[in-house]
Every structure is written in C-alpha cells, then in structure tokens.
Amino acid sequence: MENENLLCLLRIKDTEVSLTLEPTTLSWTYNKRWAFKKKSNTVFIPVNEIVTIHHGDGKGQAKKISTPSNQFTVYHVHRKSSQRWSLKVVTFTAPDAHVAHSWVQAVQKEMIETGQARPNKLLVFINPYGGYGKASEIYYSQVSHLFQLAGIESHVIETSRANHARDYLMEADLRTYDGVVCVGGDGMFSELLHGLVSRTQNDSGVCEDKEDAKLMPCNLRIGIIPAGSTDCVCFATMGSNDPVTSALHIIIGDTQPLDVCASYHGGQLMRYSVSLIGYGFFGDVLKDSENMRWVGPMRYDLAGFKTVLSKRSYRGTVEFQEANDSYSNPRDNTRCRTGCLVCSESSERLQEVAEECPTNGDSDTWKKVTGSFLAINITGMSSACPKSQDGLSPTAHLADGTADLILVQNSSLVEFVRFLSRHTNRKDQFALSNVEVHRIRAMRFTPEELDEEEAIRRQKRFLVCPCGSPSATSTWNCDGEILDCTRLSVRVHHQLIQLFARGIEDTSCI
C-alpha cells in the first residue's frame, strides 16, 4: 500500500479515524474530537482474528458490487465475554474507491501471511437426533452463513443412523477437504474421531489392535459445533459450548492438538476416547441410563442419583505407568491454557525419553493398587462441562501425552457424596483421604474373581438392595459408550488428532 494511503483519514459512520495496518495487527485511532465518546481511543484487532474484508458497506453483501466503492467492511472476532465470541462488523469510508481498494488488498495480503491454515472446504456432518434434536436448526441459523461469509465451501451430510459419519470417513475421498466438522454432541464427535483415526491407520498400514503400535497422527482437523446435551469436549477445549464461538475458531483456522486414549481388551482395540474412561460409578450411571432413554438427557441425573444411593464398590487391581514428569502433576494447580508450555514442549521431552530408553521408549515406572473401588476414572482432559466448571481433573493437559487416573476407594456414603459434590463447587476433589490421583501414560485393570462364598453373600444382599443388583463387576464408560468387557488396558497416544480450537484462553492476559 502506498504511504499516502496509510496516512489518510477514514471514517466510521461520521467519526474520523486513523487506520494502521501492521504485520499482526489492524488498529484504528479515533480523532481527538470524538475520543471522549469511546472507552478507548484506539481499537486493536489481531490480523489472525479478521474473518474477512469486503468492498462496500456490508449491507448488500449478497449483491455483486458493480461500481467501485469508497467503502470497505471488516468482519472480525469480538469477545462478548470471557470465552464467548461473536462477529463484529465495522465499515470504513475512504476518500475514494482507489484508497478503499488498496486497503482491502493490503489486509487480505496480511491475512494470508499470518501463517494460520484457514480451511477452504469442509465436510460437515449434522446429527439431527442427538442431544435436544436442534443440530440442524443451530447449523443453518447460526453457522452456515458465517462459513459462506468467509468463503468456505461446505459439503453437508445429515446422518441417518449410528456410525453413519464414521463409515463415510472410512470410504470417502478426503483429499479435497481441509477439515471435518460435526454438528452434535460428544457422541457425534466420537464418530468422527474413530473414523479419522481408523482411516489414517488403514492408509498408513498400521495395525490398530497392537497395543504397542505407534499410531499415525491425523492430518485433517476436526471442528465441533456443539449441539448436544453436555458438549464436554467442546467445553474443555474452548471454555464454551457456544456454536458461533466454535464456528469462528474454525473459520480463522485455529489448531489445537489433542491426545487420544486407546482402550484394549484381549489383544483387540475396543474404542478411542479423549475425555472419560470410567469404571464403577460412571460405568453404572451409563448402564442404568440406557433403560431411561424415554426421559431424555435427564436420564443421566436420575441414574446418577440411583447409583449414588446404591454405593456399589468393585474389587480389582489397577496397574499404571506413572509419568515421571517434573513439569506437571495433577495437584500443581496449573491449568492448561492457550499456548500451554507443558503441551508445546512435550514432544521434545518425549523424544528425549525415547532416546534414553530405546528398548521400551519410556522410563516411566509401573505401580500397582489393589482395593475396592467406588470409581476408577481416566481423563485425558479436564472433562469440564456446564454442570462442572472445573471437571474431573482441573489441571489435566490436552496434549502432553498423559492422562489423569483418579481412584476413589470404598468409603461411606457421606464421603462419596462429598467427593462428587466437589466437582461442582470448585473445591479440591483430590484433598480427601479416600481419593488419589496420578498422571499416567498407560493403565491396566484386572477385576477380582469372587470365590463362591463371596458370590453367595452378594446374592443375598441383592434381596434387600432397593437400588439394583450388587454385581461383582461394573461396566466401562468410554466417552459415553459402554464397553462390553471388564479387564481393560489403556494407552495414551500423544497428539493423535487436531481440533479447530486454541485451548481455553487465559482471560487475564487478553
């Protein structure tokens, strides 16, 4: 852009402003005569948060401008609150059409050179039945016009059955897409996760059933437009389950790597997960809720209340490979946020460990705990959601190659309720005598086989138990899906997928 264009005055409505474009920032300063009307004399917009820039005033954007205009419009991200974004529209009036054209070209050039890989074409899956059944309405009323504004081509598929999206990803030609997007809840995200990871391994010739196999990372990013009943993955990676916020993260090309846990049984891959793998309480809640589907999302609350009263405990042995990492631990009160150093430097640390221990690739030690457990939870992220702002493990990291193992030993009903309540009142849920937490890279669980005497005793208890059968074993809850096994092995795969996200922003730094 010519220097005279950089120095000229523009107008926003009737207010004179001086517009400045730098490599990473677009800013404008209000004329001193108008400054008293503004909270701040200068407005700064990161170039990588500009959605698009167009000629004209933006009102007739659908119409093709036939004559040169001395106006141009900037569409950019605006923070409505701590984690919620919206689209802000600002129209500038230049002295003439040539100056306006020069500004549009200059801003577009800087947007390209920011280094963010913005998507041009997306494969979008909509689950019209999940959550509250509003996925289609959310996409077409709040999201699709944003994609069109940003010039993103979208191929939309409404799923008609379970695993529709997963099966499509396994067979389709994905080379023309820059990412895949799910409009739905955590179940819909899980379908895309399994489809992309399995497709990547198939194309790479990697056997998924081998526990020691090094899985290949997925190239396509996954976007999440939340439309479910919990939206745990979206909430834990962006701090919000707002569809517009998610759409804007996708448009500007944010990238957040994510660890994935793989669960195995009997030499066979069972499922992939990114949030919860739970045995005991969360397994029982999921299993009991399956008989209450007619209630809708409220079934989880009803099943949870019933499971708390039953206070079932299960004996077994947990073996886990604890991460000997001096950079973080589950009790350090350090939250994983945008630009997290623990995650960004984890690849280098893991490479150093692999070079030091070439035989097994890891020097972390295995430990063993045997007991009677009310809950065994493994989470690769905080697993925060609107009902639990801090989640199962508040300091869990998204992409450091570890997961947090939470063991809740058998205790009184009062102690167990105290533990559960701390997920909602932000008190330290690990500061209890019957709870322990470990940062791990792998885990094995072996249930205890009951002798005949104990089996008879439990059967007698069933006759007086008002909350259901005191089964000898529980069920594994893997991101909302029941695993049909009890003995289980879990391994964390470092940064296996990437999301259109940037992690939760530290609002104190914004």
UniProtKB/TrEMBL annotation:
GO cellular component: membrane
GO process annotations (BP): ceramide metabolic process
GO molecular function, one term: ceramide kinase activity
InterPro entries with a match to the protein in the record: ATP-NAD_kinase_N (IPR017438), CERK_C (IPR045363), CERK_PH (IPR057465), Diacylglycerol_kinase_cat_dom (IPR001206), Lipid_Phosphate_FormReg (IPR050187), NAD/diacylglycerol_kinase_sf (IPR016064)
Pfam families attached to this UniProt entry: CERK_C, DAGK_cat, PH_CERK
Highest taxon above the source species: Eukaryota
Domain DAGKc, residue spans: 117-267
Name this polypeptide is given: DAGKc domain-containing protein
Organism of derivation: Eleutherodactylus coqui (Puerto Rican coqui)
